[in-house]
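Per your request, structure below.
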């Protein structure tokens, strides 16, 4: 067997392995989200206190993500991911154990910190696999994350329906997901730094390129956070939809994003990142316009579906571009991830605050304007275009036509 054929097989195997890690990461999120009501009751916190506590995952992630590059440099990418994904799956147990507000905040800080570090490590490995294959796979990897989140939330919904204790549920889920994560990590790429390569700093400001790319991700994640947290409320309060129909709108939005991400790589490979994001921005803005002018739940639901379709591939493409924008992929990815996490933290409260001052219609008008920003700023993703990479990377694996 030639060295090139062997490397092709190794890289393809690494692709499926890192996809499995993405699914495990998403399953933890889905498992947690469905048991938040149980956790709230167990900790004895009010709705306002719960809102405060739920800010701590994003705070923890933002603080810890810059450390991921240094951990990968010290231990090697495979060992680092093995450790970080295990810490993340085990951290699922902590929130359900919290007896009060302060311990819940601490548990969610650790939960977010481990989530963010594992996020950076797996995205950096995904970008490296994409580089070696010479074709877009990041959208599909994030689609696997969404699929994992749906599976985790389905299992959590069943557990909640059966009235199970979230502590037992999360211990069992954490044990299962830890094993699956460790097994998948056996086949990810084992990247190691060269002897003369300087370790990345423990903490550093994101490079300028990451700030520009992060701005694109900010627009997409703001729209995603607004839709996830406020779509059901919008249908109920603005269009008098039933509780079931309002909940179905949120589920439909998540499903649309998952399917679009899984199918998105074919579009990116055909048209490139910049044109794909611009087209997505047009779809998202059109969806936002439908939401704003809707006089019937079906129109608003169509708008949310279009918005999910339009923004689905933006964040994966931002991570891919960040990983190619400079000499330190992990640092750039951490910078973009910090900006997108911040957007996800800001969006729900910003929408609520603006709605309090004006209305939800005006709030989603703002979301529509930000979606238009995807059209205008998509050009910054050109720094990560795959074709220019392959010209500059003679060691890139030539993809097998059957892959």
């Amino acid at each position: 067997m030639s060295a090139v054929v062997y490397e092709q097989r190794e890289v393809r195997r690494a692709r499926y392995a890192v996809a499995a890690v993405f699914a495990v990461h998403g399953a933890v999120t889905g498992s947690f989200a469905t048991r938040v009501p149980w956790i709230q009751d167990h900790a004895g916190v009010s709705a306002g206190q719960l809102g405060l506590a739920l800010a701590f995952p994003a705070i923890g992630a933002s603080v810890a993500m810059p450390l991921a590059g240094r951990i990968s440099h010290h231990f090697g990418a495979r060992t680092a991911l093995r450790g970080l994904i295990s810490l993340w799956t085990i951290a699922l147990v902590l929130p359900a154990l919290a007896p009060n507000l302060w311990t819940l905040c601490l548990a969610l800080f650790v939960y977010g910190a481990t989530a963010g570090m594992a996020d950076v490590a797996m995205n950096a490995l995904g970008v490296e696999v994409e580089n070696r294959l010479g074709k877009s796979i990041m959208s599909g990897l994030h689609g696997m994350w969404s699929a994992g989140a749906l599976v985790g939330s389905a299992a959590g919904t069943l557990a909640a329906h059966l009235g199970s204790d979230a502590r037992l549920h999360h211990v069992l889920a954490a044990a299962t997901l830890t094993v699956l994560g460790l097994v998948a990590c056996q086949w990810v790429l084992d990247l190691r730094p060269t002897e003369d390569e300087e370790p990345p700093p423990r903490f550093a400001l994101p490079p300028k390129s990451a700030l520009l790319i992060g701005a694109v991700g900010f627009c997409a994640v703001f729209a995603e956070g607004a839709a996830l947290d406020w779509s059901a409320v919008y249908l109920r309060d603005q269009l008098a939809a039933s509780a079931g129909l309002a909940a179905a709108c949120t589920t439909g939005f998540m499903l649309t994003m998952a399917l679009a991400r899984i199918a998105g790589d074919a579009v990116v490979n055909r048209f490139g990142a910049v044109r794909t994001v611009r087209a997505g921005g047009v779809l998202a803005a059109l969806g936002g316009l439908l939401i704003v002018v809707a006089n019937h739940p079906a129109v608003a639901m169509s708008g949310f579906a279009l918005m999910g379709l339009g923004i689905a591939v933006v964040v994966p493409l931002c991570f891919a571009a960040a990983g190619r924008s400079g000499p330190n992929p992990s640092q750039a990815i951490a910078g973009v991830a910090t900006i997108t996490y911040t957007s996800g933290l800001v969006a729900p409260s910003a929408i609520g605050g603006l709605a309090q001052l004006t209305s939800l219609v005006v709030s989603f008008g703002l979301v529509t304007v930000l979606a238009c920003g995807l059209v205008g700023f998509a050009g910054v993703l050109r720094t990560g275009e795959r074709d220019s990479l392959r010209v500059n990377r003679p060691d890139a694996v030539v993809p097998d036509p059957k892959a």
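The CA atoms of residues 206 and 335 lie 5 Å apart.

Regards,
D.
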